[in-house]
Design brief:
By secondary structure, the protein is mainly alpha-helical. The protein has one domain. The chain is 78% helix and 0% strand. It contains three helices and no strands. It is elongated.
C-alpha cells in the first residue's frame, strides 16, 4: 500500500523517528494506526454511555444545575489525583 502524506505530516513523523522512540517511519505509522483503532473501538464500545452522560448534563444545565469553572477544575484535579494514587 502506498500512502501520500502532506509535507507537514511527513516532518512530524520524521521528527519522532529522529528523536528516538521509533526505529522507522513504518513503525511510527503502525503504532499510530493501532492507537487510532483502539480509540475508535473504545468510542464505539462506549457510545451509548457517552450519549447518556451528555444528555444528563444537558438536562442538568437546563435546570440550572451548573458548576462554575473553578469548581469543575477542582473536581477534575481531585479525580485525576485519585486515579494516580490507586494501586
Amino acid at each position: 500500500m502506498t500512502i501520500h502524506l502532506k509535507p507537514e505530516l511527513e516532518a512530524l513523523i520524521q521528527a519522532d523517528v529522529e528523536r528516538g522512540p521509533y526505529e522507522s517511519a513504518d513503525e511510527f505509522v503502525a503504532q499510530a494506526v493501532r492507537l487510532l483503532h483502539a480509540e475508535e473501538q473504545w468510542l464505539a464500545d462506549n457510545r451509548a454511555d457517552i450519549a447518556a452522560k451528555i444528555e444528563r448534563g444537558f438536562a442538568q444545565a437546563e435546570r440550572g444545575e451548573l458548576v462554575d469553572g473553578e469548581e469543575a477544575f477542582r473536581q477534575l484535579r481531585q479525580r485525576h489525583d485519585q486515579h494516580r494514587t490507586r494501586p
